[in-house]
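Notebook entry, structure prediction.
Reason for the run: the old model in the group folder had no record of what sequence produced it. Starting over properly, with the input documented here first.
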Amino acid sequence: MSCKVEVKLKVDNEATLCRAIESLGYNYNRAAEGQTLMTQNAYAKAQAEIVLADNNGSNSMASLGFKRQNDGFFSLVGDFHGVRGIDGGLSQSAFTRSINNQYAKLRLQETLAEMNFAITSEEEVENKVKVEATGPNGKVIEGIIDDGQLTMESLNFHGQGCEETMTELATKVGEVQKVEYTDDMAPQVPHVNQVGQEG
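New structure, fully documented this time:
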């Protein structure tokens, strides 16, 4: 273990978001390029690029959607009450966590594949997704996905190549929040004595 990176997920890829929604068993309608759809609810409506749909594919029960914000990221919009008719009573927090985790998993798979890594194991533990991937020269990366946060750690490689690989992977998936190094990777800082002079 040489380099550990904490990443805040950026939900900015519309195609990956649609795949995440579909892979969780939800139907949706997607707006044509440059257009928006309206979520449907008696009390609140919102514009969105992606709107959830009931099982027959219509928007009659759709009260939730995903809208691209000014910063380029998607956020959940609409009235959550309507989604209970789609998913049989899933709570808002559980719904949001499932979307975030599935999106992160798919985005991580895509990014790892671009970097010639393949996921070799995957398991779900206490609402978190743990993945392990192997890449060129047997490099192994472990990732833990938890509701929009991703922690990745190099398991068997270190040095400059480790830092470059982990930073590239992290910035493609989201925004780097924290980088930790083990002793073999820690940046070298000159020793400073108590009076502020290098020793």
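Summary: The chain has four helices and twelve strands.
The old model has been moved to the deprecated folder.
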